[in-house]
Amino acid sequence: MRRLRRLLAPAVIGAGLAASFAFPPAGAAPATGSTINVVVDSLAPLIPARGGDLRISGRVVNSSAQPIEQVAVRLRLSSQPLSDRDQLSDVANMPLIPSLAGPSDTAIEESRSGIDPVLRPGEESPFVITVPLADLPLGGAGTYVISVEALGTDPEGAQATLGIQRTFLPWFPKGTDLNPVGLTWLWPLADWPARDADGTLLNDSTPLSLAPGGRLADLVSVASLNPSVVTWIADPELLQAASDIANGYQVLRDGELIVGDRSDDARSWLAALKSAVRSSLLHALPYADIDASAARRAGLQQDVVRAITRSPNIAARAIEEPVEGGIAWAPSGRIDKRTANLLAEAGVTTIVLAAEAMTPVFSTADPVLPAQTPNGIADYSTGVGLIDAVLLDSGLTSALGSRQRTRGEIVLARQRFLAETALIATEPGAKPDRVIAAGPAEIRWHPTAELLNSLLRATSQAPWLRPTTIEELRAAPRVPRTKATYGTGVVAAEISAQYMGRVRAAEGRLDRLVAILDDPSTVGPAYAAALLRAQSSAWRAEPSVGAELLASINAGLLARTSSVRVLSSGTVIFSGDAGRVPVTIANDGEQAVNVGLALIGQPSARLESVPLAGIRVDPGKKVSVDLEARVVGGEPLTVEVQLLTPSGARYGSPATISLVSTAYSRAAGWVVAAAFAALAAFVVIGITRRIRRSRSWRSPSDPGTADS
């Protein structure tokens, strides 16, 4: 037995607690050695006090292949409270093995309750245990481990513990002397921004989240009951989307564009949010929660700056209340140095990180004990100076992120959260100005309303807690910390470089499109915002939806770009080596454009042509122009007719024509004629010489003639 304990939990066994109260992750199946699975569905009261009753209800399930007789349940309670958070973590992460129960807990016989004479395989039976808190052997204030154990007859016929479930019970009776720890709740509101440049939703995710019972609706309704307890942090894109949905929207369903039917829900959600933040202050994240690290690596720093600087105004317009910007939430809780510098340069003054991103540095002269949880605030150095780093407590984040599919899992998550905060409040040397930060690991969180309701109520009611704002957190004392390395694994979690390359190419198309428009404001801002949405950190977890959004944006850009095009085609024949090339430009768009035009030879060395600029084409009209060109060589020349932006950049896809010069065919004729004339002259000269020679041979002065 002792050897098994040493192997499983040496640190906790040394403290005399862990082996007795092993507690698995919420919702875990019974471990080896358990034949009965104990599920705790409720534990009340939320904040135990003297004079009340402790009531625990749940179910026992026979997880073995044999019937179990004489099934009963009873409570066990640790003899002492836990001494630190390391103990709590060790206990919480050990498997459920009933045989590990040791002498450091006490069985509460008064709580024993029979269940069924026989519990068959797979059968479950409910239980309710009610016991006056005064009857429990609770000593001083602190966090105790409480267990529900299932008893039954083992295969040898003896009564034994066949299953156990453990959780935590903070005990702070009235009059307990302690300094409550400040708790700053960071309450993020963000979604997956799947809206294209026309405002069309690619799916129903956001409207459904805003509807009653939806994820975002629950977050607002729960916090609205305790608005002063939470610090609202919202993505302006979500607020903008909710406002647009409230005014009517279109959504793609099964590939078809239909009119959405959740506008009333969006209006109600916005009204509830406006009412909740009226007595507090909403903090705006960068627009669409842009993946700043990935954008910086892709050379899109200006997009990060734009997402930060424009977000407060967008959020303020949506909720019609003052909004504070300058806050960013690092995906995965980490950020690299260069991205932090970029954020600070753009105006970010506060960044939310995981506590592991900045580890405390303790020294012998430091008044803060190493065993004590430091405040959830730190100085983060950047290239432009110090900014605030809000550090989310890892234990609280873990509790918020634990499984919450069943009532039993919700109870375990709640008690773990309360136990973590209670242990922080009772750490040695705790000071009255201590403040910690609670929040989820990811801003698109989905906790249950039941869990959040209980935790927010506890924040206001628990004697070891006091609700604080982010301003109070910023004012709290700080300890020195060192930055953890960003890590290749965190880099790999960013939006891929290939995807960001496609975003950058789309931005180039947009730049060329707005450059030719008479009024760029009718198109540019909508597409620029859509491209910021395409860079949202949301697509780290949903890359296929991000790719679909980017494809939709590109399709819209292509359609608009193609509305201004060259109609010319075929072959143009010059009577000489130079001439005019007639070109027709069509504008099927909704506003006038200003373009240039150039001829590009293939190869370019065979064509000489000066581009035209300042060609205005009104909407729905066509314009014809002539370009001067000179062709070198007699073979037909393939030429691209390319539209240009006012700055000379290529616009759209070129048309293709063929140029033919007749100058070289005439020159070739003259060459042939000259050659023929020269040949004829050579023939005449040759004949003439032969005739002369012949006459000279027949002359009388010739000696041969006299002999004849």
UniProtKB/TrEMBL annotation:
Keyword Transmembrane helix: yes
TM annotation in the entry: 667-688
Keywords for this protein: Membrane, Transmembrane, Transmembrane helix
Keyword Transmembrane helix attached: yes
Protein name: Unannotated protein
Organism: freshwater metagenome
Classification of source organism: unclassified sequences, metagenomes, ecological metagenomes
